[in-house]
Amino acid sequence: MSARQAFVYVHFLQRNIMIELLIGVVVTVLVGRYIIKGYSATGVLMAGGLLLLLISVLMGKSVLPASAKSTGWGLTDIVEYVKILLMSRGGDLGMMIMVLCGFAAYMTHIGANDVVVKLVSRPLKVINSPYLLMIAAYFVACLMSLAVSSATGLGVLLMATLFPVMVNVGISRGAAAAICALPAALILSPTSGDVVLAAQASQMKLVDFAFKVTLPISIAAIVSMAIAHFFWQRYIDQKENISHEMVEAKDIETNALRLYAILPFTPIIGVLIFDGKWGPELHIITILVICMLLAAMCEFLRFFNAKTIYAGLDVAYKGMAEAFSSVVVLLVAAGVFAQGLSTIGFISGLIGLVQSFGSGALLMMLMLMLMLVLVVITMLAAMITGSGNAPFYAFVELIPKLASQMGINPAYLAIPMLQASNLGRTISPVSGVVVAVAGMAKASPFEVVKRTSVPVLVGLIVVVVATEILIPA
């Protein structure tokens, strides 16, 4: 090949790369625009992914992974890939998420979550200092997020229990509402669906990812947010000269036994025991089935009525079905969109541009910039949509591709994105937890967001700094 031919070939490749990048950017912007406008994230991501795959086929590119056999037609290969995702997401990861949601629904149905909230709220009454009580309540509420995975559900439970206690000892309604809205902003539970997904994207075992990597960063952020709460809530109270209002505390009405308080935590105990060191190494789904059977046995010993037990388990099955429609299908749509960006050449083109910058020091700086960009985008999407899961599920599919092609530790990208999605939800005036808490506190959602904003920003900074320190890029 002559020098001129080589130049023309390189110029042609660069032009193609720019076209592919432009297509990827345009479709991504359109997807983001329609999600922001309130369209179904699942439908928009699926449509965007199918469009990218169709363009890839028209450009003569293969849309199936190397391990999959082509159907012979490019158009049917697109549908074949959707089938592959449905089978993989629904058969392993999707089933894990569905069982987790089913277990959470069953714990709520039998009253186990209510018992946990009722027991842990009582010790807070002995603390006299209003702002110390506020911090103590925040720590307790964070621990309760281990048992109640739903941010909105946890916020409502806290408003029914800890909110009246805090207001009765001198904490303003706005500050108390902020405490109730924030516990699910940082990930503590190793069995939540997004942690399972992030661990898979990071190519790490669930126990190692949850306890050795994510938990230390979450604890550091929680402590920093507690300190920020103390000063920020007191500052707003003094600035607005808010007077104390008395609210009558009401106990949760539940007939469940106190022993049931341990049941929501049995999956966490099971993950720690059945890790191959203390006992046989069991899959998380196996552990969840054991935990659900244990809870059902407790219910049978309590009522001695098989019909009641079967009706209760139906609640768990319905919770699994709802998880499939709301989470698993979203995962499939996000997978189609990520594959579309990959096959069109957007990912490889982006990586090529980044790698073309050259020096190792500059590449490390670009890695940090990439992490920050992903964090900001994820957090903004969570703030706009009011969802903590949808933004993370939408972008998590890109993590393994970006990490492998740039030589980045996938956990370096996954952990701050995971935390940013949940932090962003708590400063969104349209999120379920903020709206629910504001309504019960008889306050504006914007008042709650004002109260949570500074602690959330402090927590995000700590997450990014801790990731940079603890997680090798």
Note down, in words, how this protein is organized.
- The chain has helices at residues 3-36, 41-58, 74-110, 112-121, 130-144, 151-168, 173-181, 193-201, 206-240, 266-273, 284-303, 306-344, 346-355, 360-385, 389-396, 398-406, 410-425, 432-441, 445-470.
- The protein is mainly α and 473 residues long.
- Mean pLDDT is 77; it is low at 5-13 and 357-363.
- Helices cover 75% and strands 0% of the residues.
- Helix 14 runs antiparallel to helix 15 (389-396).
- It starts with a helix and ends with a helix.
- The protein is built from 19 helices and no strands.
Short description:
By secondary structure, this protein is an all-alpha fold. The chain is 75% helix and 0% strand. The chain has helices at residues 3-36, 41-58, 74-110, 112-121, 130-144, 151-168, 173-181, 193-201, 206-240, 266-273, 284-303, 306-344, 346-355, 360-385, 389-396, 398-406, 410-425, 432-441, 445-470.
Largest sheet: none
**Cα shape:** globular
Number of strands: 0
Helical content (DSSP H or I, runs of 4+): over 70%
What is the beta-strand fraction?
under 5%
Average pLDDT taken over every residue:
77
